[in-house]
Amino acid sequence: MRTLVLSCSRRSFLLGGGFTAAGLLGSSFGNSTRVEAAPIGVWERDSIPVDENPRSCRPKDPLATLIEGNQRFAKAWQQSNQATTMTARTDAMAGLWQRDCFLSSDVLANGQAPWAAVLTCADSRVSPEWVFDAAPSDLFVVRSAGNTAFDNAVASMEFTVSALQTPLIMVMGHSACGAVKAARNDAPLTPLLEQLVTPIRASLTAGDDLEAAVKGNARFAAKQLTTRSQLLANAVTKGSLTIVASYFDIHSGQVTLL
Ligand SMILES: [Zn+2]
Q1: Is 173 among the domain residues?
Q2: From ligand 1's centre to the CA of 136, what distance in Å?
Q3: How far is the CA of 106 from the centre of ligand 1 (A)?
Q4: How far apart are CA 221 and CA 244, in angstroms?
Q5: Taking CA atoms, which of 93, 170, 199, 257 is between 20 and 30 Å from 131?
Q6: 21 within some domain
Q7: From CA 133, how far away is CA 128, in angstroms rounded?
Q8: Residue 233 belongs to what domain range?
Q9: The pLDDT value given to residue 4
Q10: 81 CA → ligand 1 middle, Å
């Protein structure tokens, strides 16, 4: 199991999500003396955290919780597609956003404790909070067309892992990705769009269809996170971070681990 560690002296700062160079340099992964954080809360039905700690809504198994949230979304998505009235569509979606653990805006105004980070595309059909039936403070999200591990994306992941002890990063590609399509053809692009598709082209394998190319690009970006960041690589080695790649199918609403 992953062990989350947190320096007591920096605890309130970290829960507040403050961002300074000192915060990153003094991350738990770089400290030689560390203490265990307060126990991670377990989602219990009808329970409301009494300690006003945003960490109390962290699930025991973040990856399983993401997948379960996606299964709720996909079911509602498919039922909604089959609905023929507004009432039927509303009923289909009524099962979403039913939280076992509730964090009030008073708590969220003073801190966040995302239990998963998602690097995904800017595509308007791929919103992670929607796809995973997630609430504020659940997901730390970085998005750009083609879900590439650009400098700022890697740095953002370093921040959430070191300062917020986020234990899971998912890189999620999706069906019909326009950025991957652009990387696969020779149509002229603006200089900045060329810059955008260059790392995607580096991930392409000759002969792949679009779906295979999207999946390959997601795997490539996931690998880039640890190739380009010693902090993330160290966290994976120590077992405090898991990185996975996945594929979101817009038609079915389902996310598949790669
Ligand atoms: Zn896309």
Answers
A1: yes
A2: 23
A3: 35
A4: 10
A5: 199
A6: yes
A7: 8
A8: 8-257
A9: 34
A10: 22
pLDDT of residue 98: 83
Give a yes or no: residue 2 inside a domain. no
| DSSP for residue 8 | G
pLDDT at 5: 32
Per-residue pLDDT at 208: 96
Distance CA 135, CA 156 (A): 20
Residue-wise over 143-156: b if at least 16 C-beta within 10 A, else e?
Answer: bbbbbbbbeebbeb
Q: Count of domains in the chain?
A: 1
Find the CATH number of the domain harbouring 64. Answer: 3.40.1050.10
Cα 174 to averaged position of ligand 1 atoms, centre (Å) = 6
- Greater model confidence, 31 or 104: 104
Q: What distance in angstroms lies between residue 242's CA and the mean position of ligand 1's atoms?
A: 23
> How many angstroms does the Cα of residue 116 sit away from the middle of ligand 1?
20
Ligand 1 centroid to 190 CA: how many Å? Answer: 18
Is residue 74's pLDDT more than 50?
Answer: yes
pLDDT for residue 51: 57
pLDDT reported for residue 54: 85
E-strand ranges in the chain read 116-120, 139-143, 168-174, 242-248, 255-257
Q: Is residue 1 part of a domain?
A: no
C-alpha to C-alpha distance for 84 and 69, rounded to whole angstroms: 25
**pLDDT tens, residue by residue, 19-62:** 333 333 333 333 333 333 333 344 443 444 455 788 888 999 99
Residue range 80-103, pLDDT digits in tens:
999 999 999 999 999 898 877 888
* DSSP state, residue 36: B
- Ligand 1 center to 254 CA (angstroms): 16
